[in-house]
Design a protein that fits this description.
Layout (H helix, E strand, L loop, with lengths): L2 E5 L2 E2 L6 E8 L6 E8 L6 E6 L6 E3 L7 E6 L4 E6 L8 E9 L7 E2 L3 E4 L3
Parallel strand pairs: 2-11
Antiparallel strand pairs: 1-3, 3-8, 4-5, 4-9, 5-6, 7-8, 9-10, 9-11
Length: 119
């Protein structure tokens, strides 16, 4: 059974930066599409960013384009989300997820890490 573990959340002032990491335990996910999602209080979980496994193709939600950067190190079996110019509306629980290439099913999820940007 694969478990995804997120680290790096915390409290940061508006305009600041944080880097989240996600690493799977139990197996390597180098051939999976990896992604980040977030859920703000009282809202549904939403897509943030994803990265392909082979060529590193990326996609971002409009709300984070130009501020967040997703990356992965397949050798280290780790994915990252560099978040810059954070805003209060970025507050939420951030989840990493993994999806087999060629499917639309996010099969594996982490427990989430809290990011708080006070207004």
């Amino acid at each position: 059974q694969v478990q995804l573990v997120e680290t790096g959340g915390g409290l940061v002032q508006a305009g600041g930066s944080l880097t989240l990491s996600c690493a799977p335990s139990g197996r390597t996910l180098s051939r999976y599409i990896m992604g980040w999602f977030r859920q703000a209080p009282g809202k549904e979980r939403e897509f943030v960013a994803l990265i392909g496994w082979r060529f590193g193709d990326v996609a971002y939600a409009d709300a984070v384009k130009g501020r967040f950067t997703i990356s992965r190190d397949n050798a280290q079996n780790t994915m990252y989300l560099q978040m810059n110019t954070l805003k209060p509306e970025d507050t939420g629980v951030y989840y990493c997820a993994a999806r087999p290439t060629g499917t639309n099913s996010w099969d594996y999820w982490g427990q989430g890490t809290q990011v708080t940007v006070p207004s």
